Amino acid sequence: LGFKTEMGRLDVSVHPFTGGSHPTDVRMTTRFKATDVTEGLTGTIHETGHALYEQGRSLEYDNLPVNRAAGMGIHESQSLLWERMVALSLPFSNYLHPKLAAAFPEMLKGRTPTDLYAAMNVMQERSMIRVESDELTYPLHIILRYELERGLIDGSIQVKDLPELWNAKMTEYLGCTPTSDAEGVLQDVHWSAGAFGYFPTYSLGAMYGCQIYKEAHRCLPSLDSDIAAGNFAPLKEWLNKNIHEVGSLHATGDELMRAVTGSKLDPQVYLNHLTSKYSVAYKLCTAEEDDSGSVFHFS
């Protein structure tokens, strides 16, 4: 994807994260599951999106405020763009399939790139762990956390009540109830690190990332074929120029979006993407019948 290993490294941790002190020293971690190759893959690609943003910041304005990332919502847009818009696409499955087949011949025996794409985009009806949830149910995990955070801040929720409230909301929103706090309220590192208000940036990032990718798709006509061929440089360079090197030049995410895509953040772009992708994937309609207005038809 373009991560420069001479200016960073990848290690294993319980919870994936990306950090580092400078664009020339970017550290990321990931985790793996022996029974699911996709978790380690998509998790690593997600963190690589963060890392590419950090490595892509302009050294010309080194140590100046303008060189900082344009907020965590935009930062998450870069990780989620690579994870969801690229890694969960059919062109990427076309690229990935022969590599996985060579490494796991029995697992991929008789399977096509389209089969791989379908497997990587299965909607999980019950996923108690946020980072293991699918693209459609993921926002419900964020809404749950946002509602609890808001209650903690305004005083309507006490810390001691969090486990019970968490489990009740999981049952209501996702139809599953954690059997332990490790599966529930303690599964994330954010609150223990004092990162209150961070969770909504994941949903903002998903929307930003989708809208940015749509513009990249318009500007790079051969993007799908490039991805299928394993040529990620055009997309990386486009993001370097339009997002990473810009830093905090624009005061808000909406200003950046106007500069890059021509309009402020438009949630409908993301909704169109989900409607188009999953309506076709679950055969609710064909790509020809889809009227969402999305450019994303990965059937």
TrEMBL record:
InterPro entries: Peptidase_M32_Taq (IPR001333). SUPFAM superfamilies: Metalloproteases ('zincins'), catalytic domain. It comes from the Eukaryota. GO terms for biological process: proteolysis. GO terms for molecular function: metallocarboxypeptidase activity. PANTHER family: CARBOXYPEPTIDASE 1, METAL-DEPENDENT CARBOXYPEPTIDASE. This is Carboxypeptidase. The lineage of its organism: Eukaryota, Viridiplantae, Chlorophyta, core chlorophytes, Chlorodendrophyceae.
